[in-house]
Write a structure and sequence with these properties.
The complex is a heterodimer of chains A (109) and B (113).
Chain A: E1 3-5, E2 9-13, E3 18-25, E4 32-37, E5 44-49, E6 53-57, E7 60-65, E8 70-75, E9 84-91, E10 97-99, E11 103-108
Parallel strand pairs in A: 2-11
Antiparallel strand pairs in A: 1-3, 3-8, 4-5, 4-9, 6-7, 7-8, 9-10, 9-11
Chain B: E1 4-7, E2 10-13, E3 19-25, E4 31-37, E5 44-51, E6 54-57, E7 64-67, E8 73-78, E9 87-94, E10 103-104, E11 108-112
Parallel strand pairs in B: 2-11
Antiparallel strand pairs in B: 1-3, 3-8, 4-5, 4-9, 5-6, 7-8, 9-10, 9-11
The chains are: A mainly beta (109), B mainly beta (113).
C-alpha cells in the first residue's frame, strides 16, 4: 500500500529552527508537496520538490531524497504565526496526491 | 480575488437525508477535486475532474456523486447521508500539470446525526 509518515506533533521555541520530516512509500513518484494548514482553515501551498536537493524560499526550505523516500521542511526564525499543521503529500504514478496526516507544530514564546 | 469558494460552510443532516456541496473557482483552473479530512488521517480524495463534463473516482468515492457541468463549478452530492460521512470537506482546484499546486476552499463542516 501507499504510506506517508510524519510526526504527529512537534514543539519549538519562537526564533528557533525546526525540521519536520516526511517519509513515503508510494507507487511511483511525481513530486512532493508541502502545505501549511492553520486550525480551522484551508491548506495553503508551501513548496514542491521533484529533484533531489534543497529548495529555499525565504524562512522555509524543503529537502528531498528520492532514493531514501525522504523529505523535510525546515522552518527558520520561527514566529508565533507558524503554529499550524504541516502536510506532506506525494504525487503517485496515477498523478493523484497521497497525503500524510500532518504534523502539528506548536510554537512557544 | 475569491479563489475557491465553498457553500455551505456548516451543515447538520439527519441520516438518510441528501444534500449537495457547491464549489466554485474563478482562476480558470482545469482540474478540480473533492477531499474529506478526518482527525488523525490525511486528506482523502473522493472524486476529481480534469475538465468540464468529465469526472473520475478517487480513493473513497462510495456514497458520493459529483458533476462538473461548467468549468468553474464542481458539485459533490450525498444521496443518503450516513454518520460515517461526518467530516470536513475541502474542494480544491489547479492548473493542468503535475507540478501545479492545488488551491483549497475554506471547507464545509458536515455532521450527520
Amino acid at each position: 500500500g501507499q504510506n506517508i509518515d510524519q510526526p504527529t506533533e512537534m514543539t519549538a521555541t519562537e526564533g528557533a529552527i525546526v525540521q519536520i520530516n516526511c517519509t513515503y512509500q508510494t507507487s511511483g513518484f511525481n513530486g512532493l508537496f508541502w502545505y501549511q494548514q492553520h486550525a480551522g482553515e484551508a491548506p495553503t501551498f508551501l513548496s514542491y520538490n521533484v529533484l533531489d536537493g534543497l529548495e529555499e524560499k525565504g524562512r522555509f526550505s524543503s529537502f528531498l531524497s528520492r532514493s531514501k523516500g525522504y523529505s523535510y521542511l525546515l522552518l527558520k526564525e520561527l514566529q508565533m504565526k507558524d503554529s499550524a499543521s504541516y502536510l506532506c503529500a506525494v504525487m503517485d504514478s496515477n498523478y493523484q496526491l497521497i497525503w500524510g496526516a500532518g504534523t502539528k507544530l506548536i510554537i512557544k514564546p | 480575488n475569491a479563489g475557491v469558494t465553498q457553500t455551505p460552510k456548516f451543515r447538520v443532516l439527519k441520516t438518510g437525508q441528501s444534500m449537495t456541496l457547491l464549489c466554485a473557482q474563478d482562476m480558470n483552473h482545469e482540474y478540480m477535486y473533492w477531499y474529506r479530512q478526518d482527525p488523525g488521517m490525511g486528506l482523502r480524495l473522493i472524486h476529481y475532474s480534469v475538465g468540464e463534463g468529465t469526472t473520475a473516482k478517487g480513493e473513497v468515492p462510495d456514497g458520493y456523486n459529483v458533476s462538473r457541468l461548467k468549468k468553474q463549478n464542481f458539485l459533490l452530492g450525498l444521496e443518503s447521508a450516513a454518520p460515517s460521512q461526518t467530516s470536513v470537506y475541502f474542494c480544491a482546484s489547479s492548473y493542468r500539470g503535475i507540478h501545479q499546486p492545488q488551491h483549497f476552499g475554506d471547507g464545509t463542516r458536515l455532521s450527520i446525526l
